[in-house]
Amino acid sequence: MLSSTKRTILIFIAIIMLAMCASASAEEQQVNLEIANEYIRIIINTLEENMGRFSVGTTGGDPDRAGDENQHLIYGGEEPWTSYTTVRIGNQNWVYGNSTNRRAGRSGSYGTVVQPPAVVDNSLVSSWQLGPILVTQTLSFARSITTGLMDTAKIEYELLNTDSVSHLVGLRLVIDTMLGQNDGAPFRLQDRAILTDTVFYRDQMPAFWQAFDSLSNPRVMSQGTLVGGEVTTPDRVYFSNWGSIVDGLWNFEFQPGRDFTRSGEFELDSAIAMYWDQKPLAPNESRTYVSYYGLGGVTISPGELSVGLTSPWQVRGDRRHRESFTIVAYIQNTGKGEARNVTATLSLPPELELVSASSTPMRRNFGTLDVNETIQTSWQVIPTGDFSGNVTYQVKVDAENSESSTARRSIEIVRPDYLDIKLEGPLALGIENERLSPLPMQVTAEITNTGGAAAHNVTAVLSHPMFRLPQGEHAVKQLGTIEPNQSATAVWHLDPSGVSGQLVYSLTVSSDTDTYIKDNFVLVPYIEPKVFVGEPQTTKAKITAGEYFSIPILAANLPDFRRAELEIGFDPDMLEIVGRSLDITRGTLFVDTSGETAKLLDWQTPRVDNIKGVVSGISGDRGTGNSLPSAFGTLITIHFRAKQSGTAEININNVSLYDSQLYSITAAVENREIVIE
Questions:
Q1: CB contact set of 182 (below 8 Å; sequence gap of 6+)
Q2: What are the structural domains, with CATH classification, of the chain?
Q3: How many Å apart are CA 464 and CA 531, to the nearest integer?
Q4: What is the pTM assigned to this prediction?
């Protein structure tokens, strides 16, 4: 029998072994990855099921408020699954990420993971191939429009069409909002507290929404940004209960006036669905959608009538451009009895004014406010354009049976973004080996923000009416956000083949604030269309009697080229084509290499007469709709054997060239003499 001491030791070892196995199993089943800063954290699910779904929560939360540390902003916490994203392609609804057995998105189509979730440059990056569309999700930190702090999650989707045809593509983002333990708090937008199914459309979209459980003692204040900055304004935003939204992959049962009780159950459970409606996405074209969700910035003045103020922390304004914004005032009766004849009065500094002063009263009347009741009101305000710096506004709330309460909030007025554009390209092109040089030509734009505010949604579009874009190049470059005193660079490659002269190209750069145009010129020399006998191709330095060598028959700078017919003459005493038609190679101009695999085009096998020294019946046709704008390549390659020393002539005869309309193309012809040692 074991002694009690040995038995104790064995039990202790067994416990350690079990703990080690449990630890290894936990590592194999890691639930999530996360990034965090001093305000919030973003979590992405890495389990096989629900991989790619995310949640947001606080770490330190609002630095000016205690009690909102380590709280949920999206339901799901450590194992996100309730919020998901739909990509609608044609009539099919694809759900981003891996499949689920849960209620949220179970019936959707699912794609193939291309990039599992990973931390890249302090962002959570992943990508899935959803049918013909490659979707990349990037989760990172952004600066809140109301707090000015990096306490907001930037949710970004890039959609790239990897197909050879266009598709109608749209995106829906569902966020299962949560405030700590509160899953049914009202959404607050401008003058409204949303407690029932409600929709907003793009043309009347509020800049942001906020949610909190109590103004006097909020556990967490959340905020979603819908308009402004780098955010992509949705076409539609629905506020409803989570169950109804997630049961529909795209459309769902929406009932205006219905409260947020979860469909099929009995608890309040609010959620938001943002839609970017379907638009055509061309082959190789990409589109990006950005949304913000995080903490809300509200300045609170406590009292029997608690007052909260929110507005952007920074606005742009000068004489060139003035940006209007919304001031929202929240008022809660935190006294012991009803407040009667409640009023709120806005006071603005000289540097701010109402957008519609004649129709917008500074003073608002609300009548009676019950105990714990919260109301809100808003004003549209704009800088006068004469000042940059910090200013303060205030809202004073009065009631006939309560002490007044005043809240003050500061806002920074900055100069708008201003983009300085430097556009560079070659002043003139040269000619090298019958071709323009350099080809393609490179054009570079350096765009610098010399203003006082970030330039958002910067797009650069190169217009080139006489040039072509090489395969894979795009005229439009999305540059995103350029911060003050920062620059972004965009590069294009252009093919000017087939045109000549002093030619212009233009760059149009736009941001949320303004549009800029910059022109540039390049001198393109004229190159004569030509068919010529190319240099002999041999493995030795010299061609000697008995050696084999190849001769390419080349075409250069043929405009709109489709078809060619010709004969080749050679000195039969000096040269022979031993393999006859077997020693003839199809020209590269009759092979279509524009697709993933090369395609042989119409080509007639020539006839070889070594006695007369003629290769006849040479003919090739690229076909309807497949002409080359400026052809450069071989029409045919012939493999000769040198019979004796001397000089041999190779001549191009009876050349006929045709464009896409089968009109003749005029071209110079150059023959060649071959020296045989």
A1: 213, 219, 220
A2: 28-295 (2.70.98), 299-414 (2.60.40.10), 419-524 (2.60.40.10), 530-676 (2.60.40.680)
A3: 29
A4: 0.80
